[in-house]
Amino acid sequence: MSRRGALLFAAMCVIWGIPYLLIKVAVEDLSPSMLVLARTSLAAVILLPIALFRRELRPLLPHWLPLVAFAAIEIALPWVLLGAAETKISSSLTALLIATVPLVATMIALTTGDRERPEAQTLLGLLVGMVGVAAIVGVNVEGGVVPIAQVVLVAVCYAVGPVILQRWLAALPALGVIAASLAVTAVAYVPIVLLGSAGEAPSAKAVGAVLGLAIVCTALAFLLFFALIAEAGPVRATVITYVNPAVAALLGVAILDEHFTVGMAIGFALVLAGSVLATQPGIARRVARRPALDPAS
Question: Which class for 197: exposed (0-12), middle (13-18), buried (19 or more C-beta within 10 A)?
Answer without folding.
Answer: exposed
